[in-house]
Write a structure and sequence with these properties.
2 helices, elongated
Length: 51
């Protein structure tokens, strides 16, 4: 049985973290631009961004 390894996993983790951060920023900017950003919506976006 061969053992497989992914040598790029750390780069993939950082890429997914950057994508989650960009998504969070876009959600907050769009909500703020439309004038509907409240504290609870900001909390919701912050919780959903990394998911």
């Amino acid at each position: 049985m061969q053992h497989s390894e992914d040598h790029r996993w750390s780069k993939d983790v950082y890429a997914s973290a950057r994508c989650a951060g960009a998504l969070l920023a876009l959600l907050l900017l769009i909500d703020c631009g439309s004038g509907t950003l409240t504290w609870w919506r900001g909390t919701l976006w912050t919780a959903l961004g990394p998911v």
